[in-house]
Amino acid sequence: MNLDMHYFGIVREKLGLRRERLELPEGASVAELLETLAGRHDIFSLGAGSLRVAVNQEYVDSKHILAYGDEVAVIPPVSGGSGGSGGTAATAMKSLYKLVEGPIEISELLGAVAGDDSGATVTFLGTTRNNNRGRRVVKLEYEAYSDMVVSEFEKIGAEAGQRWGCTAVAVVHRFGEVPVGEASVAIAVSTAHRAEALDACRFLIDRLKAVAPIWKKEYFEGGEVWIGSVADCEHQH
Which of 18, 44, 141, 234 could anchor a disulfide with 38, C-beta 3.0 to 4.6 Å? Predict the structure, then answer.
């Protein structure tokens, strides 16, 4: 059977290609797919423990059986983070989920969560700082599995709404280059009370960092590195 393979981040860079058609026996599992790839390319052996696989834009485990024509994405580690906990039941919730190239429109974000039914609104902006690990940062560059990103935002937002009774959630993330001082991600959440809004906002950014298929490459003076990726991802020049 033929599979439509998609590669991102450090894997794409090492292979030198974004997509390819791969033939496997009928009924092959994700584990067998990764074994096949490891036999062809060192990057799959080096990073096997940290790679995830999405089939038709949904994360799957190693036992998942593949089918003819599946869209299969190899997901190297994203930029890091963990989930959260807490909560109350959701009400009807407004939402905005976007992946954009270029500056984030903060007014649009705030407008999406405004309403008389909320007593608290919390916003979070993640910006490019000028230093990291003792190095002077020049810029960041984000790569995304665009067909899957928004659906992951929707799942995260729905979970936040369910746990904290959010009246509105907005999540916007950039792709491409993000200069120092500019925002790469913006989140806004509205709830009836401030405690729930603060908890929901923290959950949203932590969960996004853990599961959204977005990769961050840091350019610094003297080199570049995929943040959160396998140990051999750094290139000095």
Answer: 44
Give alpha helix (H) positions in 92-166. Answer: 106-113, 146-164
pLDDT digits (tens, 9 = 90+) for 125-141: 999 999 998 899 999 99
Which pLDDT score is estimated for 47?
59
pLDDT at residue 49, as a whole number: 66
CB 147 within 8 A of CB 75: no
Kindly list the structural domains of the chain, giving each domain's residue range(s) and its CATH number in brackets, ordered by start. 2-75 (3.10.20.30), 94-226 (3.90.1170.40)
Rounded distance between C-alpha atoms, residue 191 and residue 184, angstroms: 24
Which residues does 125 contact at the CB level (< 8 Å), separation at least 6?
106, 183, 185, 186
Tokens of 205: 């950014």
Name residues of the chain where pLDDT drops below 50: 81-91, 230-237
Q: What is the β-pairing status of strands 52-55 and 71-75?
A: antiparallel
Strand pairing partners for 152? none
Whether 46 contacts 230, CB under 8 Å:
yes
- What's the predicted TM-score (pTM) here? 0.84
Counting every residue, how long is the chain? 237
What three-state secondary structure class fits 92? coil
Distance of CA 26 to the CA centre of its chain: 31
Per-residue model confidence (pLDDT) at position 106: 96
